[in-house]
Amino acid sequence: MYQDINLFTQSPDFDKLWFNASSFITRYKLPEMLITNSRIIPLGNFYAQINLIDWVQNPANCSNPRDGNIIVAEMANYLLPEELTGSRLTYFQNILLGNFSLVNWQSEWDNYISTSNSSTIKPQLEKLFKALLFSQEYQCV
Length: 141
What we know:
Elements: H1 2-7, H2 21-36, H3 52-57, H4 68-79, H5 86-97, H6 102-115, H7 121-134, H8 136-139
């Protein structure tokens, strides 16, 4: 049995056999499903949801949620196989911040901490999460 498995992981491209029309569609649906708690179709009645605010607030995941650049770098570090640099890092930072500056992000985060109103930061974190999981870097994992 193990010999058969090895045939699917040998070069030149057999490690990419999992990447087909069915898996591609599911991989693109995954971020939305995790954010909205939708049914993950191939797994039947299995439901999963990610709370991005809780994830960012956890010091084991994000060392400083008040800093948008740190959120992007550390979330990307968890989701992508290689560290983001240069224009790709800037691209994802712009997705998180949207029309905010880094100072505005800090203010919005502080506002969330004091009021528990996530109406400003939650959509931005969701946009970043989706962008990372839709990225070419993630798709090649």
